Amino acid sequence: MQVGDTLTWSRTFTEEEIRLFARLSGDEGVHHLVPDEQGRLMAHGLLTATLPTKIGGDLNFIAREITFQFLRPVFAGDTVECVVTLVELVPGDQLTRMNSTWVCRNQHGKEVMTGKASGVIRVQE
After folding, report:
1. Could you tell me whether strands 79-91 and 61-70 are parallel, antiparallel, or unpaired per DSSP bridges?
2. Disulfide-capable partner of 112 in 25, 32, 63, 72 (CB 3.0 to 4.6 Å)?
3. What mean pLDDT do residues 78-100 have?
4. d(CA 82, CA 103)
5. d(CA 44, CA 22)
6. Which residue in 82, 79, 91 sits closest to 120, CA to CA?
7. Where are the extended beta strands (E) located within 1-92?
8. 30 falls in which pLDDT band (50, 70, 90)?
9. Which of 52, 60, 51 lies closest to 117 in space, CA to CA?
10. What would the mean pLDDT of 79-99 be, rounded to a whole number?
11. pLDDT digits (tens, 9 = 90+) for 95-114
12. Any residues with CB less than 8 A from the CB of 18 and at least 6 apart, and which?
């Protein structure tokens, strides 16, 4: 890994996933359970936030601080792509400190979420 590297992941959210997340999280706001006037079910912000955290998991990243900016709603059927950029890597004896930023865009190219994270990756021996 090097500063400037990017990692990408995308997924399409389903109504079933949104309803399951509502049950698991306890966030059963009406906007997550009842379709809007256009027949769309809104995904939870923290469900959308699983995109950059999935990439972090692939790196065995242990977050210490995460900031999310939710810019637009995501609905069932939307495909969202997340691009994480590594902005700082500081190697140590047992841990590598890492800072990253990300942007998530829907299938129309509109930004739906941005953010940043700082944390560590354990050095594997």
Report:
1. unpaired
2. 72
3. 94
4. 6
5. 8
6. 91
7. 6-12, 61-70, 79-91
8. confident
9. 52
10. 94
11. 999 999 999 999 999 999 99
12. 32, 41, 42, 43, 44, 47, 76
CA–CA gap between residue 119 and residue 109 (Å, rounded): 29
For residues 18 and 44, the answer to whether their CB atoms sit within 8 Å is yes
Question: What average pLDDT does this structure show over 6-23?
Answer: 95
Query: How far is residue 54's CA from residue 84's CA, in Å, rounded to a whole number?
Result: 11
> Cα(24)–Cα(94) distance, rounded to whole angstroms?
34
C-alpha to C-alpha distance for 104 and 120, rounded to whole angstroms: 22
Q: What is the pLDDT of residue 93?
A: 86
Q: Where are the domains of the chain?
A: 6-13+48-122
Query: Does the pLDDT of residue 125 top 70, yes or no?
Result: no
Task: Give the total residue count for the chain.
Answer: 125
Q: What would the CATH number be for the domain defined by 6-13+48-122?
A: 3.10.129.10
- Residue 85, by phi and psi: left (phi above 0), alpha (psi -120 to 50) or beta? beta
pLDDT average, residue stretch 23-46: 89
Does the pTM surpass 0.85? The reply is yes
